[in-house]
Design a protein that fits this description.
about 280 residues, alpha/beta, Rossmann fold, 7-stranded mixed sheet, 4-stranded antiparallel sheet, 11 strands, about 30% strand, globular, binds S-adenosylmethionine
């Protein structure tokens, strides 16, 4: 793990400053605070039980710094491939793997690829495709991109990207997708204290403030990280839809049926499992 003090060095400590901090660096801190050992273990065991046979060919298409790929590997899954749009997060993942003890050497196939280009970059299929850790709404905004405007355009965009996940899921295979539990229509503002811990010897904590504009279908996430008393803040928008709508989008994208994988209250996301029909389409 990169030292977050180094990772964030040179960026403005003013929470309202114009976004000079890379999201990968902010995420490397707040992701650690969210993904405690207990969180990782609970989440990965739940996935492992639902996935079943350890030999299945698995793609984690939002692998970032490696959660839950590393945990699935520890649980015995051997055929794992990771992809992500963010080269900085893939680099952090590789650095974590390189820092592992010699007895735990593991070098999975990792590639930088957006969901928008997935079938072209990975012209093969997988028994299980993962897009968990509440990533999907960021499809056009994790790395600054052009976001669609208005509900109809946003919904069409989400369905077209989900078609790419359908394309890389093998006939008879399954696509696991996570969505924040707080994405429900009763919410207009949701403040969340993410956690506090010592990172690289210094105190670190994170606070997320999320606002929901259901008319525009835009969620605004203010991620504030404090390290050694200095505050760094970053604002990102994402597309906004609830779990029932995501289920409908998956069917519109070609999946044959969708089921819910119940998650305990302390997991931040709900998970849907979309089944691809048996015949190649
Ligand atoms: C909430 S983070 C999850 C990170 C990961 N679980 C980890 O351990 O770091 C969301 C991830 O989705 C990725 N992502 C967002 N939009 C993407 C896109 N259009 N194509 C591919 N990856 C994308 C981000 O780069 C980021 O790694």
């Amino acid at each position: 793990m990169a030292n977050p003090n180094h990772a964030l060095a040179g960026s403005s400590p003013a929470p309202d400053a114009a976004d000079p901090v890379k999201l990968a660096d902010m995420w490397s801190v707040s992701g650690q605070l969210l993904h405690t050992e207990a969180y990782r273990r609970t989440h990965a065991r739940l996935l492992a039980e639902a996935i079943g046979h350890r030999e299945q060919k698995i793609l984690d298409a939002a692998c970032g710094m490696g959660f839950p790929m590393r945990e699935l590997h520890d649980l015995g899954f051997t055929n794992l491939c990771g992809s992500d749009a963010d080269p900085d997060l893939i680099a952090k993942f590789r650095a974590l793997l390189a820092a592992a003890p010699a007895t735990a050497q593991w070098r999975p196939r990792l590639l930088v690829a957006t969901w928008q280009e997935l079938p072209q970059r990975l012209p093969e299929t997988f028994d299980v495709v993962l897009n968990v850790d509440a990533a999907i709404g960021f499809m056009d905004s994790w790395l600054p991109g052009e976001m669609r405007v208005g509900p109809a355009q946003i919904f069409a965009r989400v369905v077209s990207v989900l078609r790419n996940f359908h394309a890389v899921t093998a006939p008879g295979g399954r696509f696991f997708i996570g969505l924040q539990k707080n994405n429900h229509k009763g919410n207009s503002f949701y403040p969340m204290f993410v956690g506090r811990m010592s990172i690289d010897g210094g105190p670190a904590e994170a606070q997320w403030d999320m606002s929901y504009d259901w008319a525009r279908r835009i969620k605004t996430w203010v991620n504030t990280v404090r390290i050694d008393g200095r505050a760094f803040s970053q604002t990102r928008q994402s597309y906004l839809f609830d779990l029932a709508e995501l289920g409908d989008f998956l069917l519109a994208a070609g999946f044959a049926r969708v089921e819910r994988l119940p998650t305990p209250d302390d997991l931040y996301e709900d998970i849907l499992i979309a089944h691809r029909g048996d015949k190649a389409a």
